[in-house]
UniProtKB/TrEMBL annotation, chain A:
GO terms for biological process: aerobic electron transport chain. The chain crosses the membrane at residues 44-67, 87-108, 117-134, 154-178, 199-220. It is a multi-pass membrane protein. Cytochrome bo(3) ubiquinol terminal oxidase is the component of the aerobic respiratory chain of E.coli that predominates when cells are grown at high aeration. Has proton pump activity across the membrane in addition to electron transfer, pumping 2 protons/electron. PANTHER family: CYTOCHROME BO(3) UBIQUINOL OXIDASE SUBUNIT 3 (PTHR11403:SF2), CYTOCHROME C OXIDASE SUBUNIT III (PTHR11403). GO terms for molecular function: cytochrome-c oxidase activity. GO terms for cellular component: plasma membrane. Residues 1-222 form the Heme-copper oxidase subunit III family profile domain. Keywords: Cell membrane, Membrane, Transmembrane, Transmembrane helix. It is found in: Cell membrane. It comes from Nitrosomonas eutropha. SUPFAM superfamilies: Cytochrome c oxidase subunit III-like. This is Cytochrome bo(3) ubiquinol oxidase subunit 3.
From TrEMBL, chain B:
It is found in: Cell membrane. This is Cytochrome bo3 quinol oxidase subunit 2. Pfam families: COX2. It comes from Nitrosomonas eutropha. Signal peptide: none annotated. Its main location: membrane.
Automatic annotation (TrEMBL), chain C:
InterPro entries: Cyt_c_oxase-like_su1_dom, Cyt_c_oxase-like_su1_sf, Cyt_C_Oxase_1, Cyt_c_Oxase_su1_BS. It is a multi-pass membrane protein. Belongs to the heme-copper respiratory oxidase family. Its main location: membrane. This is Cytochrome o ubiquinol oxidase subunit 1.
UniProtKB/TrEMBL annotation, chain D:
It comes from Nitrosomonas eutropha. Its main location: membrane. Heterooctamer of two A chains, two B chains, two C chains and two D chains. The keyword Cell membrane applies. This is Cytochrome bo(3) ubiquinol oxidase subunit 4. Pfam families: COX4_pro. It is a multi-pass membrane protein. It comes from the Bacteria. Belongs to the cytochrome c oxidase bacterial subunit 4 family. The chain crosses the membrane at residues 25-47, 53-73, 85-106.
Length: 223, 329, 703, 115
């Protein structure tokens, strides 16, 4: 049985040997460039690996938050500081932005006019920026209610986690602007496509992190 | 008149000669090296002075024996033999450059370590719980209760039941359990008396526990093993096990001669500095019968109040200390 | 800090007192003076070395070559060599510190010549440098150099990223070196536990130096991990299944995976400590709900995998060497592969064994203790399989093999003490004593460094085209081995005698004899290093007669030996196609080792890029600004860093083309040399006759 | 599901692929919306006890994660198998690290609270 297991794993490990060439959804680099394809495979796979490494960073920030939950040290806790309303709207914003980025991917993959692609990207960008604005407003409200990170271990844990996601979204927005720039300068060449592809992965990944933030931090804190 | 502290320290014994017959010569050499027989202090668990250290010492030799005889020795002999027999230019042995797998050898390579690890795991599983430092030792006599507080760079021992405290000396009756609660008023430290048993961390705003026992009267090295700054290497103390009578006498002595455990004293203790430096600060008030510093009038709630004050980052409440008044209560 | 104060203090916290040299002059305390003198001497050495290097470069007009051929290069081989050079530079400092510490130990009865604070800086920088700026760059360099060659690739998956990783590491190392000249380093050891490292107890810049140099190093390593993993996963030559890969490549893969997943906890924990220090957060403070225990927890979530990150590539080197120098295929290849993977996975399950004594309950300790001992199983399998590899082989006792054999003996001892530490009941006794110091030096020196040294001797001819001097190599090896034994066996006993680690002085006279033995051992180690330098010197002098241009001086088995020494920039004129393990041995046996391809094609390789050095420079300044709180510098360099990334995103055509003719000419030249070279027997491999062509000797002999 | 996207798709295959990709995002969006709405509503109106609320939130979060991976990141058994393996491996390490941390720290907290 063990050896059967080993065989399975070997098979998976050698999946690369399968003659069938897989292409990432959202990617269409022109079939003739097999070189570009190999490099694209590596690039996108590398980005996946990076995301997984980043996931561990978030995991540790979550674990820290969990261990510091009890450490409010007499300053305001979740119930005094969290408000469900804005969080719900922020969640919808991010979710919608994931969808609009999906539409952008489709526009890119199936060679719709570039204007469609740019349009969807712009919508995504706007949603991201509104999200960031709302999040900053949340923090401002928290500060006003005495929820400063210098106040307690709990608040340190919070501000070590949620703004980390916010920073990622900020980076995503800057990247998006850069991609728009690249489209303007170079058109949709394979490098730009690859960039957009990775950005899409990044964007969807941040959405997944947000699921855990609203579940663990906000819903968990208010349940 | 109670015996003086000086006379107590004469009692400190020299355990090496009276040890159970040690036949293994290797062990003997090790013991001489390890126990520090030339000093009066017991340094090592390999010359154990209490039940925990004894168990650890036995455990140590068992593990050493298993690992060296079953693992190291065969590898050593095997490597030398193989490397020589199959050296370049050898003619007596067979050369099979494509020999890459032989199932029985593979089973051996996995099987031996697996077996040994299973055995060791059983050992660890059973004993770790048993020797949890939090677990009180069973004894017919009640335990002595001491509260230990780590400062930069000295340990403060508070005897809540006796109302006394000391820096540099942990005295307790031999033959009965010693129960300690530990915390730190500063950075993370690790409290350790090797000849008696386990070490454990002491951390600010938290309380850890440690249970030890000395079989017979004696003097043992005590220390902090977690680096904590400039005076770290001098953060030593003497753990001294005494007969009950000597211990009672010691308590009386401290009560009679100690300086009041008040805000002045505590401020001095809390300053960064070694025990010796503390003495120079408190010297005018401290009688010079040995190199340690003794206090009277320590309140039973001091320890908890201190932990809470560190935890909440607030000053110690005034009720934690006796007002600076009486001497020897 | 507000804008106005920033403008008032354009240099942040920096002032004349920040220079230990000036501070020393201003003091009349003799103790401060001696330690200041030592410190200034070290600082002067740094400054003078930098000046000498600059002068030499100018004198020989080497700036252009340096910049275009090396610093901006995206060639994995050059990057690999630069990593190793970095490791060696840092090594010199770390060894000097080690010898100082041992000297202090020898006279440390009630005093010694070092101040407590100076000693603390020594062990902190020594530990930090050895782990992050010596061992890590060394193994990263070896991996960088060897892995693409072994898998028949032209380069790593992301060459520019590779250069950036290198420069991030260099920036971190430069930051540590800067702390010698400007300010002080941390005294919190290589793991810097708070609250000791918090602002309350350590307000100065020392801890900040430690934080930012580690952050740079860990970012560099994460990126390296990604790069290597993807390279191995995606760039293998056609036909090379995972199970055909040489063992060194396997260990590199596992190490890379561990870097990817183990570095993040370190990044998180140092950044959280930075937040505590800079913005008054309460992650790890004593009070206000902070939790210092979580620092230990997260640090070791990184720290334990880290030690296997160090050892696995060394294991890979030993595997290659046992096989090559026994003239025999590896025994139990699949077992070795599975053992490597198990070690990598298990290493994520044992971190708690570094704080058995923190007070958690017995069953938790037992679980992690047993998990730690489990690692002994795959490690044992490796040891046994290496023994079986020699069995029925023909073992040559060359320098790499001497290291490997010494490794087996000493590593087993270190492993055994590891198993003892993994036993919570025993760890309660020896934790934080020098017994532990002996354990980890036992793993780090005979385990990791002997592997690196063996690999250095093994692959040096491949990288530079000539062999190292064998005699000085042996002298050095024996000095290492016996020096190490002298320096660290005594520490096991001292640890059992209750001597805590990191003690600048002690009160027990019974420690003295062993401390002296340890010092003598350390001197022997220093001699070993000297011998190594002499070896390099002698070898360079006699390089002409030791040339091995054909590229296969040791009768090698894997693909890196199938190309010239040094290899061309593109590694292989034609990407080889593989259908077995030990691909090059198979080729030689079939007599197709040195064949011309039917056609040559243009080869695309990445152009040089200034990205790496620019990144290194800005991130160094960024970190420096953070340490000294020079906010304008932080903002400026931060913007430049981001800007560089953005600009790079807009670049296209980053490849350059090597025309088929060039490739053809170079390749024919090499084939010509190979065909005209005399195939030599192994008994002659250390003679001038060895031009890098091996005679076929792998024929079964029996009596 | 249908075959993986191949290198040179026929025109009608292109159309079905496109439709399928589009539907993937639509499905993902719809499911995610539901999986978000439900826990928010439950918490907003404190529908059950804290204990069961927490469990429901956790389960729905897991499901939603799978939904995102499946429909937005296109991870699946029939697609890029190596990505799936990578994600599973990473998840297992993530769980070990996070669960281990919480286990250890909770135990320590319990044993160290001042009496
Ligand atoms: C890889 C890790 C590594 C290595 C190799 C070493 C090597 C040495 N170390 Fe180190 N040490 C640490 C990691 C390492 N150390 C760490 C992590 C600490 C803990 C710090 C802390 O407390 O926080 C420590 C602490 C430490 C202490 C403090 C102990 C204490 O706490 O009291 C001492 C004291 O003597 C010491 C001594 C030495 C000595 C004498 C060597 C010698 O063996 C030196 C050995 C020689 C070499 C290392 C050279 C190897 C040479 C090559 C590889 C050359 C290659 C050359 C060419 C290619 C040309 N070490
Ligand atoms: C390269 C580095 C390296 C390696 C490979 C190892 C390998 C091991 N280490 Fe070590 N370790 C360190 C570097 C390393 N360590 C460092 C740097 C520290 C301290 C950091 C600090 O505090 O500063 C440390 C600390 C450390 C501790 C913490 C102690 C303490 O703080 O109190 C423990 C406890 O379990 C431990 C255990 C082990 C074990 C079980 C192995 C095992 O992997 C060993 C396995 C090998 C063998 C067992 C030998 C060969 C096997 C056989 C021949 C087969 C048969 C064997 C059996 C069946 C057992 N190590
Ligand atoms: Cu230590 Cu809680
Ligand atoms: Cu470990």
């Amino acid at each position: 049985m063990i050896s059967e297991l080993f065989k399975r794993v070997e098979f998976y490990l050698d999946a690369r040997q399968n003659k069938e060439i897989f292409i990432y959804p959202g990617l269409n680099l022109g079939a003739e460039h097999s070189n570009v394809h190999t490099q694209a495979e590596a690039t996108v796979f590398g980005f996946w690996v990076f995301l997984m490494s980043d996931a561990i960073i978030f995991g540790m920030a979550f674990a820290t938050y969990a261990t510091l939950l009890q450490g409010t040290a007499g300053s305001p806790g979740p119930r005094e500081l969290y408000h469900l309303g804005p969080i719900f709207i922020e969640t919808l914003l991010l979710l919608t932005s994931s969808f609009t980025f999906g539409m952008a991917s489709i526009a890119m993959k199936y060679k719709h006019p570039t204007s469609h692609l740019v349009g969807w990207l712009l919508v995504t960008l706007v949603l991201g920026v509104i999200f960031l604005g709302m999040e900053l407003d949340d923090f401002r409200t928290m500060f006003a209610a005495g929820g400063l990170p210098t106040q307690s271990g709990f608040l340190s844990g919070f501000f070590g986690l949620v703004p980390l996601h916010g920073l990622h979204v900020t980076a995503g927005c800057i990247w998006l602007v850069c991609m728009l720039g690249q489209i303007a300068v170079h058109g949709l060449d394979s490098e730009t496509k690859l960039g957009l592809l990775r950005l899409a992965l990044f964007w969807h990944f941040l959405d997944i992190v947000w699921i855990f933030i609203f579940s663990v931090v906000y819903l968990g804190g208010l349940a | 008149m109670p015996k003086s502290i000086m006379s107590v320290s004469v009692l400190q014994m020299h355990g090496c000669g009276s040890q159970q017959a040690v036949t293994l010569s290797v062990q003997c050499v090790a013991l001489v090296l390890l126990s520090g027989c030339n000093s009066t202090e017991h340094l090592s668990f390999l010359n154990p002075q209490g039940p925990i250290a004894t168990a650890q010492s036995e455990h140590f030799w068992l593990v050493v024996a298993i690992l060296f005889i079953l693992i190291a020795l065969p590898v050593f002999i095997g490597t030398v033999w193989i490397a020589w027999r199959y050296r370049y230019g050898a003619t007596k042995s067979k050369y099979v450059p494509r020999w890459k797998i032989f199932k029985p050898l593979e089973y051996f390579s996995w099987g031996i370590p697996i077996t040994i690890v299973i055995f060791l795991s059983i050992l660890v599983w059973e004993d770790t719980e048993r020797f949890d430092p939090y677990r009180p030792l069973t004894s017919s006599t009640p335990a002595t209760h001491v509260q230990v507080i780590g400062y930069d760079w000295k340990w403060l021992f508070v005897y809540p039941e006796q109302g006394i405290a000391s820096v540099g000396m942990l005295a307790f009756p031999a033959g009965q359990p010693l129960t300690m609660e530990l915390t730190s008023a500063t950075v993370m430290q690790s409290f350790f008396i090797p000849a008696l048993g386990s070490q454990i961390y002491a951390m600010g705003g938290m309380v850890t526990q440690l249970n030890l026992q000395a079989d017979r009267p004696g003097r043992f090295l005590g220390e902090n093993t977690m680096y904590s700054g400039d005076g770290f290497h001098q953060q030593k103390f003497a753990a001294v096990a005494m007969t009950q009578a000597d211990f009672d006498a010691w308590v009386q002595q401290v009560r009679a001669t100690g300086i009041p455990f008040d805000a002045t004293a505590l401020n001095a203790i809390a300053m960064q500095g070694t025990k010796a430096q503390l003495r120079t600060v408190l010297a005018p008030a401290a009688p010079a019968f040995d190199s340690n510093i003794y206090f009277t009038g320590a309140k039973a709630n001091f320890f908890t109040d201190l932990v809470m004050s560190v935890m909440d980052d607030k000053p110690l409440p005034s009720t934690a200390l006796a007002p600076a008044i009486t001497k020897g209560q | 800090m507000s804008w106005s104060t920033t403008l008032n203090h354009p240099l942040g916290l920096l002032d004349a007192d920040s220079f230990p040299f000036l501070a020393m002059l201003g003091s009349d305390d003799s103790d401060i003076f001696i330690n200041g003198l030592l410190g200034s001497f070290a600082a002067a050495l740094v400054v003078i070395s930098v000046m000498v290097v600059v002068a030499l470069l100018t004198r020989y007009r080497a700036w252009r070559t340096l910049w275009f051929d090396w610093l901006t290069s995206a060639d994995h081989k050059k990057i690999g060599i630069m990593y190793v050079v970095l490791a060696l530079v840092m090594l010199v400092r770390a060894i000097a510190e080690a010898v100082l510490m041992r000297a202090q130990g020898a006279v440390g009865l009630d005093g010694g010549f070092l101040s407590s604070d100076h000693f603390a800086q020594l062990f902190s920088t020594h530990g930090t440098i050895m782990i992050f700026f010596m061992a890590m760059p060394f193994l990263t360099g070896l991996i960088n150099y060897v892995v693409p060659l072994q898998i028949g690739a032209r380069d790593v998956a992301f060459p520019i990223l590779n250069s950036i990783s290198l420069w991030l590491t260099v920036a971190g190392a430069a930051l540590v070196m800067t702390s010698l000249v400007v300010g002080v380093f941390s005294t919190g050891g290589w793991f810097g536990y708070p609250p000791y490292t918090g602002t309350l107890y350590n307000p100065g810049v020392g801890v900040d130096y430690w934080i930012w140099s580690l952050t740079l190093a860990s970012l560099g390593s994460t990126l390296t991990g990604i790069n290597i993993a993807v390279t191995i996963y995606k760039k293998r030559a056609p036909g090379m299944k995972l199970y055909y890969m040489p063992l060194f490549t396997w260990t590199a893969l596992c190490t890379a995976i561990m870097m990817i997943f183990a570095m993040p906890p370190l990044t998180v924990v140092t950044l959280q400590l930075a937040l505590d220090r800079y913005l008054d957060f309460h992650f790890f403070t004593n009070g206000l709900g902070g939790n210092q225990m979580n620092f230990l927890n997260m640090f070791w979530l990184f720290g334990h995998p880290e030690v296997y990150i160090l050892i696995l590539p060394a294991f890979g080197v030993y595997s290659e060497i046992f096989s090559t120098f026994s003239g025999k295929v590896l025994f139990g290849y699949k077992s070795l592969v599975w053992a490597t993977m198990s070690i990598a996975f298990l290493s994520f399950l044992v971190w708690l064994h570094h704080f058995f004594t923190m007070g958690q309950s017995g069953h938790i300790n037992a679980v992690f203790g047993i998990a730690s001992m489990l690692i002994g199983i795959p490690t044992g399998v490796k040891i046994y399989d290496w023994m079986w590899t020699m069995l029925r082989g023909r073992v040559r006792f060359s320098v790499p093999m001497i290291y490997s054999l010494a490794f087996i003996f000493l590593f087993v001892i270190g492993g055994i003490t590891g198993i003892m530490l993994a036993n919570p009941i025993l760890d309660y006794q020896v934790h934080n004593t020098v017994f532990l110091v002996a354990h980890f030096h036992n793993m780090a020196v005979p385990g990791v460094l002997f592997g690196m040294l063996a690999g250095y001797t093994f692959w040096f001819p491949k990288a530079f085209g000539f062999r190292l001097d064998e005699r000085w190599g042996r002298i050095s090896a024996y000095c290492w081995i016996f020096g190490w034994m002298g320096a660290f066996f005594p520490l096991y006993i001292l640890g059992l005698m209750g001597l805590p680690r990191r003690s600048v002085a002690y009160e027990q006279a019974s420690y003295v004899p062993l401390e002296i033995v340890a010092f003598v051992g350390a001197l022997l180690v220093a001699a070993a290093l000297m011998a190594l330098v002499i070896q390099l010197w002698v070898s360079i002098k006699h390089r002409e007669e030791n040339r091995v241009f054909v590229g296969d001086p040791w009768d090698g088995r894997s693909l890196e030996w199938a190309t010239s020494a040094p290899p061309p920039e593109y590694n292989f004129p034609v990407v080889p196609s593989i259908n077995d393990r030990d691909a090059f041995t198979a080729a030689k046996e079939f007599g197709v080792g040195y064949q011309e391809p039917d056609t040559y094609v243009n080869i695309e390789i990445p152009q040089n890029s200034a990205m790496g050095p620019v990144f290194g420079g800005t991130s160094f300044l960024l970190a420096f600004g953070l340490v000294w709180q020079i906010w304008w510098l932080v903002i400026l360099t931060g913007l430049v860093t981001i800007g560089t990334l953005v600009v790079r995103g807009f670049q296209r055509d980053t490849l350059k083309i090597i025309p088929a003719e060039t490739v053809c000419r170079a390749h024919r030249h090499w084939i010509q040399a190979a065909r005209s070279a005399q195939p030599i027997k192994r008994s002659q491999e250390h003679t001038a006759a060895n031009k890098g062509r091996a005679a076929l000797e792998t024929v079964e002999v029996s009596t | 599901m249908s075959k993986p996207v191949t290198r040179i798709p026929a025109t009608n295959a292109l159309m079905t692929n496109k439709r399928r990709d589009f539907m993937s995002y639509v499905w993902g969006f719809g499911l995610a919306l539901i999986l978000t709405l439900v826990p928010f509503a439950l918490v907003q109106w404190q529908a059950t006890t804290r204990g069961s609320l927490l469990i429901i939130i956790a389960v729905l979060a897991m499901v939603q994660t799978v939904v995102h991976f499946r429909f937005f990141l296109h991870l699946g058994r029939k697609r890029k198998r190596e990505d799936l393996l990578l994600v599973l491996f990473s998840t297992s390490l993530l769980i070990i690290m996070v669960a281990g941390t919480i286990w250890i720290m909770a135990n320590l907290a319990e044993r160290m609270t001042p009496i």
